Amino acid sequence: MSGHSKWHNIQGKKGKTDAKRGKIFTKLGKEIVVAVKNGGSSPDTNAKLRDIIAKAKAENMPNDTIAKAIKKASGELSSVNYENIVYEGYGPSGVAVIVETLTDNKNRSAGNVRSAFTKGGGNMGTLGCVSFMFQEKGEIIIEKGDKDEDEIMMIALDSGAEDFSSDEEEVFVVTTTPDDFGQVREALEAEGIEFLEASVKMIPDTYTEIDEADAKKFQKMLDLLEDDDDVQNVYHSAEFPEGWDF
Length: 246
Hints:
This protein is an alpha+beta fold. It has three domains: 5-75, Integrase, N-terminal zinc-binding domain (Arc Repressor Mutant, subunit A, Orthogonal Bundle), CATH 1.10.10; 83-127 and 206-239, 2-Layer Sandwich (Alpha-Beta Plaits), CATH 3.30.70; 133-204, Alpha-Beta Plaits. It is built from eight helices and ten strands. It has helices at residues 5-19, 21-39, 47-58, 63-75, 106-119, 149-158, 181-190, 212-227, and strands at residues 83-90, 96-103, 123-124, 134-143, 163-165, 171-176, 197-204, 208-209, 231-236, 238-239. The strands form three sheets. The chain has a four-stranded antiparallel sheet. A hairpin with a 5-residue loop joins strand 5 (163-165) and strand 6 (171-176). Helix 2 packs across helix 4 and helix 5 (106-119) packs antiparallel against helix 8.
């Protein structure tokens, strides 16, 4: 993996987020529903809900929109039943892909995800076919700007972070275990540090370089998946060509 690839992929994801803000908010709203159903509507006692709120804020979801989503979720508990289903497979050049969905119709989700894989030059595999190539980690992305690197690094590491990287040109990357993600994020938040991204995700052990032809096919797959209302997250091991226009 070259130094630029992780942030380059994040930049592409954020660019898509900015263009599809309403859809992202809808998907976050579904995550809030599930979190409230499983742990209650108070972020003080529901750690999962706190993490989703942080994720929503990193996506620039307004506080009043978050509050309305929680209130709505509290009133929908008896009528909403989302199932969490994970699909795995391969994109062009053997890129590993994990797709997480929240759906009320698993047949619809399976058909749509399979279609996206096929149209993007890949193929859907069985559960477990690529997940062993990933590790579940908390990841917090912070824009460097004029921030004090040593100060942020000490806050992160002292609160339980596994790793702190400043190798990327524009950002600091804080990595945690899933269990420690919440306390590290809260320690940074307490110091007024804002995030470009903050979530627990699947991070590939290695990245696969793809050329422009395969990047075009794979981008089509990603666009189809990210446009699907049932798809919550897409993780992959692709390293796009330098300067690729997402």
